[in-house]
Amino acid sequence: MKLNNPVTDIPLIGDAYFRKLKRLDIKTVGDLLLHIPTRFLDLSSTSKISEMKLNETATIIGQVISITNTYTKKGRIVQNAVLSDGRDTINIIWFGQHYLVKSISPGTLLSVAGKLGFWGRKKSIISPSFEKLDPGKETIHTGRLVPIYPETAGLTSKWLRSRINFALKNIKYPNEYLGDSELGGIKAISLPLSIKKIHLPKNLKEWEKARRRLGFEELVRLQKETIKKKKSWRKNKPFGKIKIKLKINEFSKTLPFKLTNSQNQAINEILSDLSRDMPMNRLLTGDVGSGKTVVAAAGIAVCLRNNLTSVLLAPTQILAEQHFNSLKKLLNLDKTDISLITSSRKGNPDSKVIIGTHSLLHKSKELRNIGLLIIDEQHRFGVEQRNILAQQRQVPHILTMTATPIPRTVALTLYGDLTISNLTEMPKGRKKITTWIVPSVKRKRAYKWVESEIKTHRTQAFVVCPLITESDKDSMKQVKAATKEREEISKLIPSLAIEVLHGRLPSMEKTKIINKFRKGKINLLVSTPVVEVGIDISNATIMIIEGADRFGLSQLHQLRGRVGRGDKKSYCLLFTESQSEKIITRLAAIKSIKTGRELAEMDLKLRGPGEVFGFKQHGIADLKIAKWTDINLIKQSKKYAEKMPKQSL
Ligand code: ADP
Ligand code: MG
């Protein structure tokens, strides 16, 4: 039996079981063998019957003296066996397994693992795991570390164990092709041994070594895919040639501020990418407010000189409008050069700079014959856009931008085909944002404070409503909550101009409200959680987040980043009704931690990577065997994959 044989080659796996196994993504014998246990039951210590203690789990080995079906008073059928270990006997009870009486005859040697309790007045082991013992045969369900697997309806760990055990015995193991020094380098045992020990280890140390070997295999496969993607992207030709270069000094001279060092570096990297005969695929990361837009503007500036079109896509219409206005100013463009295309505005598709929302990605007509494609706040980093552009003969240079920090291990694997520029510093002169946690008893007082702050300093405030569910950030429910919120706040501070902004408003209306806010005609803007990314209004200095405990730390940080952009002192108020110590501690973390990277790492620890990076939502398969924290293993897998490995599972 080989790893790529269908799993139905294993006895007792017919159509019905095959369908169930498919739910666990298991189709081949190899898939089954790489369905690895999530934990182990420690049934390794075997005891004498006399040593068993009430309510403790132990494994007993003994001979069956008798086994019968009996009925309880209520008419339930139970199996009652008596087991002897040579000195003492013990009663054993199973439920509803009448066939046992036929399959276990007196005299059979059994290994039984379970808890000692009472059946009526008799001390008994109730409903234990068990297996028949043949002399010299290794146990798999009892008397050892017993593997527990991810299960699905109708597939128990016990059943999986027995089928995996069959496969382990009959498999023709693949050869190990790593040398001893390579195995030593990743602290692992050989491939054939790993396949066995991942299921049936003597101890957890042995299991970890097996996991590392198989995890390495998994990572190398992932790395090879990434390398392939990278190579095939690089085979494309960029649309249009960049002949006239742009010097960074020329560009920065035109700006109203001095670029930070990391902005300078990122711009240099982008300009050098653009001058190559290979399309760029770069990801620009940088905390909220680090100034990613101006970096993108440099790319647009060089395309303009070369008479090539640039397209910038934003996640919301409001952001698209904001980019439109700020790029027009930054690059000193007039109406014919730059155009905004949204669901409500046709714009001029012949402009050399086109700003739109992500939905333009699906209208590939507009995306033809362009030199540079910039995608702001996009979290599917390159995957989708590459798919969309794949049919074209000539592709644009792509720059994706995000405030989500990418952990090193993810950058080295999943995003290994992207080159990454990172803005590590904030523009000078940013004021620290003071963050407070406000319990509900202080709510009224807090709003009174907001009122006086707004009046004395002529500043403005955002209020973000509680997140009802993550999946519908802008649902009707959410809209109702925002409207109600506004009424309540109006009662508390009737002298202020308050308006509601949410995604369900007609787009003209949205634009009107945002512009009024920008001009200072609205004091307090109540919004649904959708209005979180990218809004840049420097006179707003207060961010109020209602129901702050419903948000992830990184989300809170992004929201907080909406203020503190001008030279006035800024505040973030985290409202919560929760009194749970755990939640308050989590919120308190955001008071002291200032950077998105630190918070993302905390979120990673608290909520796990699948949640934080939304792998499932983005259709990215999570690692099954290796872990995202295995930085060394990941680095070595990359090195190995790059030198063309001989073979892999
Ligand atoms: P983000 O990285 O969150 O997209 P933006 O590009 O919106 O940040 O920039 C935030 C604000 O900082 C903008 O108002 C922008 O004009 C300003 N800004 C960008 N770079 C600098 C700089 N080097 N010095 C001062 N202000 C800057
Ligand atoms: Mg931005």
UniProtKB/TrEMBL annotation:
Listed InterPro entries: DEAD/DEAH_box_helicase_dom (IPR011545), Helicase_ATP-bd (IPR014001), Helicase_C-like (IPR001650), NA-bd_OB-fold (IPR012340), P-loop_NTPase (IPR027417), RecG/Mfd (IPR047112), RecG_dom3_C (IPR045562), RecG_wedge (IPR033454)
Domain Helicase ATP-binding per the UniProt entry, residue ranges: 273-423
A biological process term (GO) from this entry: DNA repair
Residues of the Helicase C-terminal domain: 442-610
Pfam families attached to this UniProt entry: DEAD, Helicase_C, RecG_dom3_C, RecG_wedge
Record-linked CDD domains: RecG_wedge_OBF (cd04488)
Stored PROSITE patterns: HELICASE_ATP_BIND_1, HELICASE_CTER
SMART domains (UniProt xref): DEXDc (SM00487), HELICc (SM00490)
GO terms for MF: ATP binding; DNA binding; DNA helicase activity; hydrolase activity
Name the UniProt record assigns to this protein: Probable DNA 3'-5' helicase RecG
Tagged with keyword Plastid: no
PANTHER family: ATP-DEPENDENT DNA HELICASE HOMOLOG RECG, CHLOROPLASTIC
Keywords linked to the UniProt accession: ATP-binding, DNA damage, DNA repair, DNA-binding, Helicase, Hydrolase, Nucleotide-binding
